[in-house]
Specification:
Radius of gyration: 21 Å
Shape: globular
Number of helices: 12
CATH architecture of the largest domain: Up-down Bundle
CATH class of the largest domain: Mainly Alpha
Number of strands: 7
């Protein structure tokens, strides 16, 4: 199944996503046409379990398919991550968690309706995470609050860098139950429909890269959602974040794909095979050959860490497996941009032109290290701390 899925995405990428990518970047517009293609191909249900009518992709399968998508259009792959996680988190990842019989029954009831929207209605989910606080890094409760009301919940708060703003049918809002001493254990995961009263989108979107994600700000003011808007039973998100840490690595496939795209472009360009360009070969220069060799080595090293980490992903990973995930995330995000840097230097001045994809790949790749919850800085911080300290250890 994996090979068929990757080939399906590769065909869409070559024929449709890549030719449109420049326009989405220039306009900072959402790739609606790409999502129509994904819907028609049945790929919106990629991570929905088969028993609910989806394709049943597990974590590693999603990562490999998403990397192929990122090879052709970074913004499409990055936003697709938000959509796919709504099914991954509530499906195979949730099934691995310890829960009571009542929680498991509630999970089945909640996600059945959620998956029906995706499979039967073609619904698109967003997953706004950031709030400009320590919450998105997993160091504090979310500031967006949900208060229990008759028959549902009332949500108040703000989400920044909310990808798919104005494009999603549902926003998967992570918020804190508003009761007593607020704790990360009280995190709720709610599906807020785009037409909900009190939900507004504000602000401009004119960033360095990943412009097609259209990640504006969501304001939630007394937004009411019914009880069945919960995507996970109460308490399960916190369990997942603690026991399934690889769930926060799902951004990295996009940048693995961009790294591959930068290498692909360089080889194609030096061979004189770039579409729309004169067939001028530049491959005979030793400096170019050495640069391509260096790029190949860096790409191979990056992909090896990526493959190792995603194949090791599971509930309650070992310390080594968790540290390897941080190392892979850091390496992918940093090396994607470095490969783009090497590509521009190797291909030369014409590669900076916006008529070619390399300068867009460079700008998109620079954004990866900044993305919560596992930014490059946080990965290094956790690697250092968790290598030197066992759980509960202090210097006191």
């Amino acid at each position: 199944m994996l090979e068929e899925l990757i080939e399906k995405v590769a065909v869409l990428g070559r024929e449709k996503f890549a030719p449109r990518a420049e326009r989405y970047d220039r306009e900072a517009s959402f790739p609606f046409e790409n999502y129509a293609d994904l819907r028609e191909a049945g790929l919106l249900g990629l991570c929905v379990p088969k028993r609910y009518g989806g394709l049943g992709a597990d974590f590693a399968t999603y990562c490999r398919v998403a990397a192929e998508m990122g090879r052709w259009c970074g913004a499409t792959a990055l936003t697709f991550n938000m959509h796919a996680c709504s099914a991954l988190w509530t499906g195979p990842l949730a099934d691995d968690l310890d829960m009571t019989d009542a929680q498991r029954a509630e999970l089945e009831r909640l996600r059945a309706g959620h998956y029906r929207r995706i499979v039967e209605q073609g619904a698109i989910y967003a997953q706004p995470f950031s709030e400009g606080s320590a919450a998105a890094a997993g160091k504090a409760p979310f500031g967006t609050l949900a208060a229990k009301a008759d028959g549902g919940w009332i949500i108040n708060g703000k989400k920044i860098f909310a990808s798919l703003s104005g494009a999603a049918d549902y926003y998967g809002i992570l918020c804190t139950e508003d009761r007593g001493d607020r704790s990360m254990r009280d995190t709720l995961y709610m599906a807020v429909p785009k037409e909900a009263a009190g939900l507004t989108i504000t602000g401009d979107w004119d960033p360095l890269g990943m412009r097609g994600t259209v990640s504006r700000t969501l304001i939630l003011k007394d937004v009411f959602v019914p009880d069945d808007a919960q995507l996970l039973p109460r308490g399960l998100y916190f369990k997942a974040a603690s026991a399934w840490p690889h769930m926060f690595m799902t951004l990295s496939p996009t940048y693995m794909g961009i790294a591959q795209a930068a290498y692909d472009f360089t080889v194609q360009y030096l061979r004189g095979e770039t579409p729309g360009q004169p067939p001028v070969k530049r491959r005979m220069y030793p400096t170019k050959q050495i640069a391509v060799a260096e790029m190949y080595v860096k790409l191979a090293q990056t992909r090896a860490l990526f493959e190792r980490a995603i194949d090791a992903a599971k509930v309650n990973p070992s310390k080594r497996e968790r540290l390897d995930a941080y190392a892979a995330q850091y390496t992918i995000m940093e090396n994607a941009n470095d490969l783009c840097r090497l590509a521009i230097r190797t291909c030369g001045g014409q590669s900076m032109l916006k008529s070619l994809p390399l300068e867009r790949l460079y700008r998109d790749s620079r954004c990866g290290s900044l993305m919560l919850p596992w930014t490059a800085e946080l990965c290094l911080d956790r690697l250092g701390r968790e290598t030197l300290y066992e759980p509960g250890e202090t210097d006191a």
